[in-house]
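User: Let's play a game. I give you a shape written as tokens, and you guess the letters that built it. Ready? Here's round one.
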């Protein structure tokens, strides 16, 4: 039996994207400030699902979990969102001014300047209250990947970009700026880039259509890496059923190369040039943290090391290389740190 549309567990949470409304109007934000009383210091880290892991300029680890956002200083955890009720957090970002941004599944985004928290939603200009990821470009603009398009915040107002502007899909999953200044967008359909004037979509890989792109990075050599799937076939037993081919692709500016058939939800390049990914080995399969050896990346069959395997109904999420070279990654049960020798669960 063919493998029909079986988006493994990470992707299922994006289904509600299809119900998100489109909006490309520029709106002035309204003041909506919550006074932050006090951060809560605790020896315990996140107990639930960790969606992403980052590092601030002081070397602290920032952890976005469904329950709360935590800061880890190497000894204890500080809950940064203990006064925010209900939201499921998907991402965290420290901008160049030291402010923190918290993305949520259905409550928009929170802005924390270490004294107060400001809350932005569709009422303040966002195209959707689902914010999958946050990115700061070289100019200092903060970009939000949302369920209703991409949103750029310049410190005063939001400017939203949707399919009406040329974006390939309003269900945006990731954003990345390359060395030339192009902004790349991963979406539920094709990836695309924005050169400041127009969007250009990548509709085909070797004659096949992109369907889902969950992660995009640029490596040290200027190659663009995509994690997601392409449409192999539309033939099904009942109706227009999609048959997908998952994998990891590399784009050198001219051609695409499929590096692996493994499902890829997150991609990271470390300082040595190795490529790290999280994803299912195959649809509905077990999840793996994998490392692709930089010495064999351009071989027909690059060397892949499975660092950590999570079997059963598990999932692995965001990846971070910390300043000390250790690798941090999230899971359904919390966060892990790998120092090259041992794996520690928090």
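Assistant: Ready! My guess for every position:
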């Amino acid at each position: 039996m063919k493998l029909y549309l079986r988006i493994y567990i990470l992707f299922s949470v994006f289904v509600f994207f299809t119900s998100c409304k489109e909006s490309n109007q520029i709106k002035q934000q309204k003041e909506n400030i919550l006074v932050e009383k006090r951060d809560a210091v605790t020896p315990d880290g996140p107990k639930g699902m960790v969606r992403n892991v980052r590092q601030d300029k002081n070397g602290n680890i920032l952890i976005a979990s469904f329950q709360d956002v935590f800061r880890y200083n190497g000894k204890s955890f500080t809950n940064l969102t203990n006064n925010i009720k209900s939201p499921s957090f998907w991402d965290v970002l420290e901008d160049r001014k030291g402010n923190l941004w918290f993305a949520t599944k259905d409550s928009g985004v929170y802005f924390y300047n270490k004294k107060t928290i400001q809350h932005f939603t569709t009422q303040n200009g966002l195209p959707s209250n689902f914010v999958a990821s946050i990115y700061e470009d070289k100019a200092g603009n903060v970009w939000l990947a949302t369920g209703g398009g991409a949103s750029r915040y310049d410190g005063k107002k939001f400017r939203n970009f949707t399919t009406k502007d040329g974006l390939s899909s309003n269900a945006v999953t990731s954003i990345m700026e390359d060395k030339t200044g192009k902004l790349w967008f991963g979406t539920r359909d094709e990836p695309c880039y924005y050169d400041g004037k127009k969007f250009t979509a990548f509709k085909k890989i070797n004659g096949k259509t992109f369907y889902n792109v969950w992660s995009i990075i640029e490596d040290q050599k200027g190659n663009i890496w995509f994690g997601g799937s392409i449409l192999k076939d539309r033939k099904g037993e009942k109706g227009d059923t999609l048959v997908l081919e998952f994998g990891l692709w590399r784009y050198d500016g001219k051609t695409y190369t499929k590096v692996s058939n493994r499902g890829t939800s997150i991609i990271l390049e470390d300082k040595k040039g190795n490529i790290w990914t999280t994803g299912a080995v195959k649809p509905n399969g077990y999840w793996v943290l994998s490392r692709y050896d930089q010495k064999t990346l351009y071989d027909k069959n690059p060397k892949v090391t499975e660092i950590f395997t999570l079997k059963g109904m598990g999932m692995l999420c965001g990846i971070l290389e910390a300043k000390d070279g250790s690798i941090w990654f999230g899971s359904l049960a919390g966060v892990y740190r790998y120092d090259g020798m041992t794996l520690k669960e928090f």
